[in-house]
Amino acid sequence: MKIIDLEPGDPRLTDDLLPILSELRPHLTDELFAEIYGEGHAQGLRFTAAYGDDGACVGAAGWRIVVNTSAVRKLYVDDLVTAATARSTGVGHALLAHLEGHARAAGCTSLNLDSGTHRTDAHRFYFRERMAVTAFNFDKRLD
Known about the structure:
Elements: E1 2-6, H1 12-24, H2 30-41, E2 46-51, E3 57-68, E4 72-82, H3 91-105, E5 110-113, H4 120-128
Parallel strand pairs: 4-5
Antiparallel strand pairs: 1-2, 2-3, 3-4
Pfam families: Acetyltransf_1 (PF00583)
InterPro entries: Acyl_CoA_acyltransferase (IPR016181), Bact_Acetyltransf (IPR050832), GNAT_dom (IPR000182)
Domain N-acetyltransferase: 4-143
């Protein structure tokens, strides 16, 4: 497996990563993804892709380093998804290990993510990865 941090403008963002990311975020179009990354990159948003031995993209992660008063410095994972056809093959573990390396290099105190309450398979994976539920996330839709 090969894991690559993709820079803005890299065609692999839409050609390879976006189809996998869309499995988790089906509302994303090419245009919306470009808009989000265009604005989000200035806020620290980065994307990482995992490629299988056959060269196909099998996993995607969106992440950023966040500095705040509660954690001081943490790596926050916005998105973490393994292609449906590649689940339970070590892709998620490899992506998390790669992100943990970024977190440690940046002096982060934690690697953190939110997961929808209905995503029980993902929760089992996070528990296997030695992650803990440490907070509730509250959301108020402003539609």
